[in-house]
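Fill in residues.
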């Protein structure tokens, strides 16, 4: 079978749009299907899309050079544009076999353009959704991923991975920065430098910090699996201001 430029453009645009929609559906199906099944479905959808891309490109290649050998260009950056624009080898339609026009040509071009731009729009919407989800990530979601990492890599290794790649000092606010992250066994220690002298923390402040740690989905997953979160505050001359240890019993005592 041969495929001319307009049908090929329309087909590729429709596939791209379908892939974009499938990824948006995937984002919303994780909590329903579970992560493993959702990932499996996503991989299956991408595999089907890859097959359709290549199959359509083989038909377009036959129209161009009477061979399937140009089809791999679909997987080369900008190669698909060559496949979309290259004229057929034989302009004599009588030698092409049966003509299979399902659409009026003008309608096909209009629909293809709509679909071609719809894909990026859906991708943009998907990106906004991911960004919003990250900002409003529920504790249950964060806990799920933390538990999954602990199950596969162990608590200590998960704590180590959490600290890897963090650029220090990490600015928390105008006077506070994280200057050190250390993992020792099941303890995660975060060291803060506070640019204020003669500072004293009251019990209310320490309790507030403890509550913040206990309700943080990721940190709470670590704590529930036996981790200790240690917070250390230093003044500008590296003298210790205060130190806090948060464990599961701490969260239990706070009723969290």
């Amino acid at each position: 079978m041969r495929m001319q430029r307009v049908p090929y453009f329309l087909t590729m645009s429709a596939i791209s749009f379908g892939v974009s929609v499938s990824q948006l559906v995937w984002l919303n199906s994780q909590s329903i299907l579970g992560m493993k099944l959702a990932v499996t479905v996503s991989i299956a959808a991408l595999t089907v899309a890859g097959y359709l891309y290549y199959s359509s490109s083989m038909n377009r290649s036959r129209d161009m050079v009477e061979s399937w050998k140009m089809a791999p260009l679909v997987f080369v950056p900008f190669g698909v544009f060559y496949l979309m624009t290259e004229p057929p080898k034989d302009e004599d339609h009588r030698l092409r076999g049966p003509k299979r026009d399902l659409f009026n040509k003008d309608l096909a071009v209009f629909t293809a353009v709509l679909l071609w731009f719809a894909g990026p729009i859906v991708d943009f919407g998907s990106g906004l959704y991911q960004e919003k989800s990250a900002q409003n990530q529920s504790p249950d979601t964060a806990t799920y991923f933390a538990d999954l990492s602990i199950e596969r890599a162990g608590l200590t290794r998960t704590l180590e991975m959490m600290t890897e790649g963090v650029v220090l000092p990490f600015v928390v606010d105008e006077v506070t920065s994280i200057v050190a992250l250390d993992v020792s066994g099941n303890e995660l220690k975060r060291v803060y430098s506070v640019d204020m002298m003669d500072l004293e923390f009251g019990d209310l402040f320490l309790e507030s910090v403890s509550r913040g740690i206990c309700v943080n989905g990721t940190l709470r997953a670590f704590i529930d699996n036996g981790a200790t979160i240690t917070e250390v505050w230093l003044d500008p001359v590296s003298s210790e201001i205060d130190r806090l240890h948060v464990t599961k019993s701490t969260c239990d005592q706070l009723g969290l």
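Residues 92-105 have pLDDT under 50 and may be disordered.
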